[in-house]
Structure formats: C-alpha cells, structure tokens
Amino acid sequence: MPHQPPAWFAWRPGSHLAPADAPRAPLLAADSWLVEDGRVRFLAGHRARFQAACRAAGAGPGLDVAGFLDQVAGRLPRTGAWFPRVELLGAGRPVLGLRLRPAPARRAQVRLMPWYGPDPRTCPRRKGPDLDALAALRARARQEGADDYLLTAPGGLAVEATTATLLWWDGGRLCLPAPHLPVLPGITAAWITARATRLGVPLTPRPARPADLSGHEVWLVNALHGIRPVTAWPHTPYRAGPAPRAALWQQAWQDAARPLPAPQAAARP
C-alpha cells in the first residue's frame, strides 16, 4: 500500500504545522476545498471565509490564522485528489489544525428531497459547528433514496442543501434564495454569480418553495462537486427540469483550477 500522510496537523502559532492527534473538542469553524494534482479553485475565497468564521467564533490574533493558512497551502499534496479541511477546535483555548483527507467520490447530478423538519443548524452562516448534524441528516436522505435534503425555513421557503448552495434558472435569469434567509456564504456560488454578472446574465434573489422549483433547471453547487443539476425529486410530485446549461458551466468551473501557492518556509520554532 502507498504511504499515507498523517491525517491531522496541529498549528503552533507563528511557527509551523506538526503531525498530532486531533483534540476531542467542539468544532468552532471549518472550511474545505478540492485539490486535484496540486490545483485548487478559489482558494482566496475559502481563506477569507475561514478567517471570518474564526473571528466570529472568538479566535484572537494570537492564533495567527493567516500564518496558519500560509503553511496549510504548502503542506497540501501536489498529486492525487484531496479534500482537506482547516479547523478551529476547542472551547476555552481553541486550536487550529489541518485535517488531510482523500477526496470522496464525486457525482455529476443529485437527487433532492425537501426537509420540513426542525432545522439542525445552530450557526447557519458559519461553517463548522453544524457539520455533524448535517451529515446525520444527509445520511437519512440517502436512506430514503435521495442524495441530499433541501432545507426549508419557517413558512416552507427553500434555503440550501446540507452541503451545497441552491441556485435555479427561471427563463434566462439565474435565481438564488432571498438574502434574508439563513444561508452559508458559498464560495462556488459566489464565483457562479460573479461569472453570471460578467456574462450579462440577470441575477434574481427571490423566495421560493420547493414546489416553485418543479420543472426548472435547479443546481446544487459546492467546492467538492462544482455544479450538480437536480435530476430527481424522490417521494414528491415535483418534476426535475432539463439542465441544458449545467455542462457548460461545470466545464468553466473545471477550468477555473489554479496551481497551489508555492510552499512558504516555516518560522523557526
């Protein structure tokens, strides 16, 4: 078997990353992105989102989040497919770490079901604290013949999936959930909306219920899969619309990958 690198690296603020055992502590903030043969998409966006999440979680300047992220980029493998996760863990004294994970299987399409039960999220605009609860809900969706659940707000408005941002097309307009809804700021979604603006595609934030999406081209988008059109709505009367735009936009997402930054020398311990 090929040698597998250590799965978790602890950050020594102002110094370097070292292999370690991950502490058993609450996950306060996290971010992940896909790395394929040393190429990555929108790393600056993931970096900025994680830094904001750490600030929101109360991480002080002594943790040196920027220095940590510089070292993370140098630690990532330049061959193979990986889905690393940067983490802020802890309670009283939080710590930063890198969880190095092989990329899970990726799919080009998705079967989606609405979820009308209690919202499992406690921090919907910060990635990290709710990941375990969302994973459990996603596992339940798979038991019911879907790939993911579409979360809904009170009143039944569609919000997002457990792992992805919701986008859909209405004629020539690209639609997204209304801005007042509790949605995680999506890095892939931000790239899509910026590209749409450059191409002159009208963007329309609007409230929508799952039934309003029936017959439309609906996408779930995230850093692992890119753009996945919804091809089925199991156990619902809703119809998956054709997705003529998805392949072209997915190819543009594929083409957006850039080489990882060159490794930076660690500070002397």
Describe this structure in words.
By secondary structure, the protein is an alpha+beta fold. Helix content is 22%, strand content 26%. The chain has helices spanning 43-56, 65-75, 131-143, 187-198, 246-255, and strands at residues 8-11, 17-19, 27-32, 35-36, 39-40, 81-82, 85-89, 95-99, 110-115, 148-152, 158-161, 165-170, 173-176, 203-205, 218-222, 226-232, 258-259. The strands form three sheets. The protein has an eight-stranded mixed β-sheet with strand order 11-10-9-16-15-12-13-14. The protein has a five-stranded antiparallel β-sheet with strand order 2-1-8-7-3. Strands 6-4-5-17 form a four-stranded antiparallel β-sheet, with no helix packed on it. The longest helix has 14 residues, at 43-56. The two termini are 33 Å apart. 36% of the residues are buried. The mean pLDDT is 94.
Give the gist of this structure.
This protein has 269 residues and is an alpha+beta fold. Helix content is 22%, strand content 26%.
Topology at a glance:
Blueprint: E1 8-11, E2 17-19, E3 27-32, E4 35-36, E5 39-40, H1 43-56, H2 65-75, E6 81-82, E7 85-89, E8 95-99, E9 110-115, H3 131-143, E10 148-152, E11 158-161, E12 165-170, E13 173-176, H4 187-198, E14 203-205, E15 218-222, E16 226-232, H5 246-255, E17 258-259
